[in-house]
Design goal:
Structural class: mainly alpha
Strand content: under 5%
Helix content: over 70%
Largest sheet: none
Shape: globular
Number of helices: 8
Length: 272
């Protein structure tokens, strides 16, 4: 059944996206292999921080440059994603170190009863890295949507100033803000369903739910992913606006400096 669903996905991507659909299909498996490689590296006992950052950057390069090529849109989007990753790396570790949601929870006691508890992995760092991986897909999606739309605005109306381009980017961001919020909500709600059923079956009260490690880590992931998706909108808008105007100024300078070809008159030779 998994092979059949994978084949259906490939056929639909080819029908809708053509060559880019094929690239998208292979991108999914490339990112999956990267995540599996990250799990293996962490399982060997390495600190998960640096491998997670490197993996997120490689995923960004694959999704942006492999699918869409190297251009102003993808470069601006990558710069925005990189800045947000650095910012939220510090925020995530600051919050993650204070909520004490690392390690195994009471809800997983039954499933880990036959497993050795001393796995040699820093669970605090691992839980923070899981949050970072969870927000990378959201910020890439939002960033490329802003930069691509804003670049089209610049191409269709190159006389707009940086301030006007930035305002256009913010208007585009406000339009997709609602859909991004709902996408995050329903994506995480699907993962929460079984957890809520578990809480209901064991008659958890509100205080028990809020203080549960599973709920704390999931709620933190939702809040940070949503905040990152919102903050990347103005960041991408201003970076793309500045880059579009700089590229226009450089192209204008090149046209001015380009020497004009001298016209030479050709004389016909008279034949006797």
């Amino acid at each position: 059944m998994i092979k059949l669903l994978s084949l259906i996905l490939l056929l639909l991507l080819i029908l809708v996206g053509g060559k880019r659909g094929i690239k998208t299909y292979f991108t999914i498996y490339m990112n999956l292999l990267l995540i599996l490689l990250l799990i293996i590296i962490i399982g060997w006992g390495f600190s998960p921080i640096i491998p997670t950052i490197v993996t997120c950057l490689i995923i960004s390069v694959i999704v942006l440059f492999f699918l869409n090529g190297v251009n102003i849109k993808t470069v601006c989007s990558f710069v925005s994603v990189f800045i947000i990753l650095l910012i939220f790396l510090g925020i995530t570790f600051g919050i993650g170190n204070n909520i004490y949601a690392q390690g195994y929870s009471e809800e997983t006691i039954e499933s880990i009863s036959y497993v050795a508890y001393n796995c040699g992995i820093n669970m605090l760092k691992l839980s923070n890295c899981i949050i970072i991986i969870g927000l990378i897909g959201n910020i890439i999606d939002t960033s490329i949507a802003i930069s691509s739309a804003l670049y089209e605005v610049h191409i269709n109306n190159p006389k707009l100033t940086r301030e006007e381009l930035f305002e256009s980017g913010m208007n585009i961001g406000r339009d997709i803000l609602g859909t991004t919020t709902n996408t995050l909500f329903f994506a995480y709600l699907g993962g929460f369903m079984t957890l809520f059923i578990y809480f209901q079956d064991f008659q958890y009260n509100f205080n028990m739910i809020v203080n549960s490690k599973v709920f704390a880590i999931e709620f933190t992931r939702i809040m940070l992913s949503g905040t990152a998706s919102f903050l990347i909108i103005p960041l991408t808008a201003i970076i793309t606006a500045v880059a579009c105007k700089i590229s226009k100024e450089e192209s204008t300078v090149e046209v001015i400096k380009k020497p004009k070809k001298r016209k030479t008159k050709r004389t016909k030779k008279s034949t006797a």
